[in-house]
């Protein structure tokens, strides 16, 4: 444990100001999401854009493609939260059977597509692991845009697999961030459930 903490500290000192800015925006974004604030998307978009620039410098082109999806979903979520009358009248709700069908489709089809790309087009040594983390995060982002309570569950399924993956890749700063996001998502779920009950 002491070694992991020391590695996280060293990793933070070695990161660029842009990478730190991206991580900071990610932290602010999830805290605002927990409190059902539409401004979460502003910080999410800034974090994604700055993060893509960092990833480009590291030549992680597949990760850039995944972040493009997050960017599109963030823009859509911002629009949906601010311009959709139904979303304003009932900001938080639970998933319907149709929503779960979409979640299953995004997760399974996304996993299959990403796995094939990572396995046959890239030099990834963890294609299934990486594909699962991304596919479940995609589904969680879609639910977040729809203000569905269960977005926190999907995002934490992704986080649960992402933490050991990031440690495996020795990306300790991002592993620490993901651990923080995992904890916040637990509180986010219960906070959203409380908000959903009080607005009924």
From TrEMBL:
Subcellular location: Cell membrane
Residues passing through the membrane, by range: 41-58, 64-81, 102-121, 127-145, 152-167, 173-192
GO molecular function, one term: nicotinamide riboside transmembrane transporter activity
Keywords: Cell membrane, Membrane, Transmembrane, Transmembrane helix, Transport
Gene Ontology CC: one annotated term: plasma membrane
Membrane topology annotation: Multi-pass membrane protein
UniProt superkingdom: Bacteria
Chief location bin: membrane
InterPro entries (UniProt xref): NMN_transpt_PnuC (IPR006419)
Pfam families: NMN_transporter
Family: Belongs to the nicotinamide ribonucleoside (NR) uptake permease (TC 4.B.1) family.
Protein task: Required for nicotinamide riboside transport across the inner membrane.
The protein's name: Nicotinamide riboside transporter PnuC
Species the sequence originates in: Sphingobacterium yanglingense
Lineage: Bacteria, Pseudomonadati, Bacteroidota, Sphingobacteriia, Sphingobacteriales
């Amino acid at each position: 444990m002491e070694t992991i903490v020391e590695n996280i500290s060293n990793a933070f000192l070695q990161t660029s100001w842009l990478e730190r800015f991206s991580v900071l925006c990610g932290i602010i974004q999830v805290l605002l999401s927990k409190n059902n604030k539409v401004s979460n998307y502003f910080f999410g978009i800034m974090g994604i854009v700055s993060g893509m620039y960092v990833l480009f410098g590291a030549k992680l082109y597949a990760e850039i493609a995944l972040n493009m999806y997050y960017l599109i979903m963030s823009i859509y979520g911002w629009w949906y939260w601010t311009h959709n009358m139904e979303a304003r009248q009932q900001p938080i709700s639970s998933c319907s059977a149709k929503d779960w069908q979409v979640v299953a489709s995004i997760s399974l089809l996304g996993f299959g597509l990403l796995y094939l790309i990572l396995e046959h087009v890239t030099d990834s040594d963890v294609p299934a692991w990486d594909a699962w983390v991304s596919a479940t995060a995609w589904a969680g982002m879609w639910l977040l845009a729809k203000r569905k309570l269960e977005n926190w569950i999907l995002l934490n399924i992704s986080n649960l697999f992402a933490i050991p993956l990031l440690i495996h890749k020795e990306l300790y700063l991002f592993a620490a961030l993901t651990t923080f996001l995992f904890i916040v998502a637990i509180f986010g779920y219960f906070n959203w459930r409380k908000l959903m009950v009080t607005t009924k």
